[in-house]
Fold this sequence. Notes:
The structure is a homodimer.
Chain A: H1 3-10, H2 14-22, E1 30-31, E2 37-38, H3 41-56, H4 61-72, H5 78-87, H6 99-112, H7 121-135, H8 142-161, H9 168-202
Antiparallel strand pairs in A: 1-2
Amino acid sequence: MWISELSGRSGVPIPTIKYYLRERLLDHGESVSATRSHYDERHVARLRLIRALVDVAGMSLERVREVLHHIDDESADLHSALGSAHELLSAEPDSDPSEASMDACSQMIADQGWQVSRQSRHRRALAAALDAMSDAGNPISPQTLRNYARAVDDIAAAELAGIPTGDRDVSATYMVTGTVLAEPVLLTLRRLAHENLSSRRFGHNGTVTPPPDDES
Amino acid sequence: MWISELSGRSGVPIPTIKYYLRERLLDHGESVSATRSHYDERHVARLRLIRALVDVAGMSLERVREVLHHIDDESADLHSALGSAHELLSAEPDSDPSEASMDACSQMIADQGWQVSRQSRHRRALAAALDAMSDAGNPISPQTLRNYARAVDDIAAAELAGIPTGDRDVSATYMVTGTVLAEPVLLTLRRLAHENLSSRRFGHNGTVTPPPDDES
Lengths: 216, 216
């Protein structure tokens, strides 16, 4: 396809595509003449991935470049490539998380039987998020954390089952894009669920009623 | 307590507390002398709420002021107050979501039997998030959306059951703080769950293996 169709398919304006080509975030297409190139499905997928990382995950182009570098590193197996790309989604905590929260994470990971690296950045980001809850006077109990982990594990298993296999680049792009783009879906669903429950529980003028036994 | 203890308990530096007092984001304490005031637990809770909204939800102080205004509006019942405060957590989409996504949200809400307002900003934010997935070539099926909604509903029900009742201000603060602060916990848990599943499924050099039957 020509660049105009690539722009239409990906939703990325032509000047932005040209910028990404110059910055080498996007591979050049197949040259047809001095000024025209042909692009294919991989270019569409790559542009969508870049937009998801920039618009939804709020990444700088420098961090996007790192993510793409890991996805493209064919010397690494797909899990390592995915792991490195995926890891960049979680911000490195500003300060070291507390030992208590790191221990709570390790315990939860052991309870779930999860295989995740000891150095995982997600693990440190989770511990930092637990610290923020404690600091705010809303600490999460180990039981709640376990419940969250179980619910999320079911979600993730269903998501991973849908990943197309067979092509390394397609799998990697799909996984990183899916992780990033589904996050706002899950968060807004939870907010809607809270709105629903709040309306059932608090929806009378000024009074706070206990949750009804037959619901919740 | 004096301002120094308030600072220690809330983790907010004294100059920042003074700034919030001047900006009327925080009520003045009980004056003891021309220069000293006494503060109580409500001040601690309010400061933690402000920090959660600024640091975790990334809100401007102007938006924080709106949230606090709704929580403090005693003419509204608790659900309306919470609804208005909570609603500000979701950003208003830049453009109108597609009708197809709005319909998919309505269908999911009807399937779940949720009571949420037709004008809910979370509903529009969810539709916009669905549009972003379609635009990226990863559309969510109605089945997946239903699975997400069910998993999230279980999480939310467990969360709401833990809300302290009896004091309007405490309930509202707890609910908004809890919604905001638990979001990074859920997102990082999902990333960890993906890391685990990816390691089981893709963790061999360069090969992509199908998910084992006895797991996932």
